[in-house]
Amino acid sequence: MRPRSAKPAELWLVIVDASASTRRHGALSKAKGLLSEVFEQARRQRARLALLHATGRHAQWLWQGQKASQALQQWLAELGAGGGTPLLAAVQQAADWQARRQRLHPGERHRLLIITDGRLRDWPALIPSACPALLVDIESAPIRLGRARQLAAELGADYRHIDSLPVVAGSLETAL
């Protein structure tokens, strides 16, 4: 057994795509279940969270490097979807924030989780993530475009469809 102080600090950076397209076919509901599990695991593991909400015209920070709390569950209960998909702006904003954070806390380990349906028209070349990343595809339409898989490849992220993730205690620990 090692004392907690010997374990390096962890930060989980979560980007949530809550555009209008995520309302279709129960995609946002599945994402909420996944996020609830992520928040609970972060709390149990004492990981810090940074949460970026991509909806409408802009991405908005909801949490920046704090420990998980009950306030996240309240936000999650009220989470709705609508508007456009500022996902690419959110990814860039998160990369910039993460670089600043890494300079301030050099011993902190970062992990990136992106939850999206990938319904983007096109995007410029992307810079791969500076930390281990997982993109969870929540696209649930009968005809799937499969753009989230391409987005994951360009970001150097592991790709998983939400239906392939067992949402049980500890399962996301290995995924993240």
Keywords:
176 residues; alpha/beta; 6-stranded mixed beta sheet; 6 strands; 24% strand; globular
SSE order: EHEEHHEEHEH
| Arithmetic mean of pLDDT | 84
Which percent range fits the helix content?
25-40%
Total number of beta strands? 6
Poorly predicted runs are 168-172
Shape: globular
Number of separate structural domains? 1
Specify the number of helices.
5
Q: Widest sheet: strand order?
A: 3-2-1-4-5-6
Estimate what percentage of residues fall within beta strands.
Answer: 15-25%
Structural class of the secondary structure composition?
Answer: alpha/beta
Q: Compute the gyration radius: what is it?
A: 15 Å
N→C terminal distance = 23 Å
Protein described:
The protein has 176 residues and is α/β, with parallel strands linked by helices. The protein has one domain (26-138, 151-175). The protein has five helices and six strands. Strands 3-2-1-4-5-6 form a six-stranded mixed β-sheet, with helices on both faces. The longest helix is centred in the first third of the chain and has 19 residues, at 27-45. The radius of gyration is 15 Å and the shape is globular. The two termini are 23 Å apart. Mean pLDDT is 84; it is low at 168-172.
